[in-house]
Amino acid sequence: MRRKLVIGNWKMNGSRAGNAELLAGIAAGLTASGAACAVCAPAPYLAQCQAALQGSAIAWGAQDVSAHAAGAYTGEVSAAMLADFACRYVLVGHSERRAYHHESSELVAKKAVAALAAGLTPVVCVGETLAEREAGQTNAVVREQLGAVLEAISAGDVAKIVVAYEPVWAIGTGKTATPQMAQDVHQVLRAQLAEKDGQAAAGVHILYGGSMKPDNAKELLSMPDIDGGLIGGAALKAADFLAIIHAH
Ligand code: PEP
C-alpha cells in the first residue's frame, strides 16, 4: 500500500513573512492521518524551510536543479547545494520549465540523474498539452517524457523517483482531468515503470497535478494509481493545502 504523498509547488511566490505564516499554518493543522507532505519552495527560501521544518513531518524541496555538478554555470543551483539544505525532493521537467525555458526530455533526464546522485528524490513531471490530447497523443507524449528519464537511470533507481502527471491544460486553469482520465494515464506510466523494474513500479508514487483543490482531491485520490498530488495554487493557503493532505 502506497501512503499518499502531497507536494506543494509554490512556484515563484512567497516572502519570508508569508512563508513563515504558511509553514506555521500547515504544521499546526497536520495530523497523523494525513498524507506524507512536502513543499517545494523557491531556492532562496530553502534555508528558511530547513530552519522551520527540520524535525517536523513536512519535508521540503526545490523546483528545479542544474544538470551540472559544479562550475561555471551562472545562476544555476546544483543538486549538492539542495542536499546541503536537506532538501528531500526536487521537481524536474515541470511544464513551465519545459515551455518557458525550452527544457528537453534529455535535459530533464540529466537533471533527474544529478538529483539521484546527490541523494535527492526527483519528482519527474510529465504531461500533454491540450492540442496533444485532442490529437490522441497523450500516451505517446508522457511515455516519451518518462522514457527519457528511465533510459538515463539504472533499474535500481526506479524506486527512488516520484512521477507527477500534470496535463498542461489543467495547470493553473481551474480545469481538472476527470479521475478516470488521470487514472488511465497513471496506469500507462506505471506499466512503463514496470518495463524497467517490475517490482519497483508498484511502489513508485505517481502524483496527479493540475488544479487539484479541496473539493476535487478526494475523488482523484480515490483512484488506484493516483498516489497523491502536486499542488500549485492551492498550496499557497494553509487551509486548502491541509484539506488536500487530509482528503483521502
Ligand atoms: C503545478 O504547477 O504543478 C500545478 C499543479 O498547479 P495548479 O495546482 O495551480 O494547477
UniProtKB/TrEMBL annotation:
- Positions the record marks as coiled coil are none
EC number from the UniProt entry: 5.3.1.1
- Family of the protein in this entry: Belongs to the triosephosphate isomerase family.
Q: Name one GO biological process term.
A: glyceraldehyde-3-phosphate biosynthetic process
Q: Where in the cell is it found?
A: Cytoplasm
Q: Specify the superkingdom.
A: Bacteria
Q: Pathway, per UniProt?
A: Carbohydrate metabolism; erythritol degradation; Carbohydrate biosynthesis; gluconeogenesis; Carbohydrate degradation; glycolysis; D-glyceraldehyde 3-phosphate from glycerone phosphate: step 1/1
Q: Can you state the subunit structure given in the record?
A: Homodimer.
Cellular component GO terms held in the UniProt record:
cytosol
What exactly does this protein do? Answer: Involved in the gluconeogenesis. Catalyzes stereospecifically the conversion of dihydroxyacetone phosphate (DHAP) to D-glyceraldehyde-3-phosphate (G3P).
Show the GO MF annotations: triose-phosphate isomerase activity
State what protein this is by name: Triosephosphate isomerase
**Primary residence:** cytoplasm
Read off the Pfam families from this record. Answer: TIM
Q: Which reaction does it catalyse?
A: D-glyceraldehyde 3-phosphate = dihydroxyacetone phosphate
Task: Tell me the organism's taxonomic lineage.
Answer: Bacteria, Pseudomonadati, Pseudomonadota, Betaproteobacteria, Burkholderiales
Active site per database record: 94, 166
